[in-house]
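Catalogue entry: protein

Sequence with per-residue tokens
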Amino acid sequence: MTTLRDAIADYVRAMHLEFGRSVHTCRAVESDLTRFAEFLEGHGVGNDAEPPTADALDLEQFRDWLWEETQAGFAATTIARRASSARGFTAWLKNTERGPDAARRLRSPKTNRSLPRMVSGDAMADIFADLRARALSGDPVALRDLAIVELLYATGVRVSELCSLDIDSLDLDQRIVRVIGKGNKERVMPFGQPAGTAILDWLQRGRRELSNDRSGDALFLGARGARVNPRTVYELSRSLLEHAPGAGPSGPHAFRHTAATHLLDGGADLRGVQEFLGHADLGTTQIYTHVSAERLRETYQRAHPRA
């Protein structure tokens, strides 16, 4: 018999090595399932001598766990993610003959999906003007920041994808970048002249000043020369967006949302935007049509004489 915690560890390992899930996704699932194991242990299922086992799970245990998590005040989106983690885990238990698919009929709560933050074209122009003004000083961090935001907006890449880029991920002549996304899938993204110019300037003037023996082939570097980390990009994004018009989160995902919305506003079709963003499901991309529709409604109400 496999203990529950050992099965969780094996599942998370399989997610990363066999299924190609990202480190971030694996950590989230591991956290969810560890909370479930702690719930069982806290309610007297098993003991130190005989901990809970994977072959003894049932649906009611999962339902009781999610009910307790809901009562603790966790958001519906968090509860839905935990239900999804549980379903994936027990499906894997059955496929590997370690236990029953106990969570197969576990339902996720309905969530009110909020519209992502979108930055207007004028606000983006102001952001780039500010970044270019800083970069004129030749400060390597300022040159890096301009190149990062240009690439985020030009390609809509996720922050994890951006931070993992190497120099040879780029073809500056063709102005394309190869990105490894979710599920270890590669996609090739074009970018325009402004992003190309900013990246070339960073490579020629900024990167060489920060580079050291910790840099390796990383495209973007932190202030101490190592590969830039997501927290640095989040802090940069927050500093740029905190005073920009619009509500919602100020993380780098806002530039991804903005790029997708501007593409749709410019006439791009939904399938093309799906490929651009690297979404496996077209339904995930469709939220951007709601953003565009909402903006159209606001414009209509503001400008039409019979609105």
Q: What stands out?
A: The chain has a mean pLDDT of 84. The radius of gyration is 23 Å. Residues 4-95 form a domain with the DNA polymerase; domain 1 fold (CATH 1.10.150).
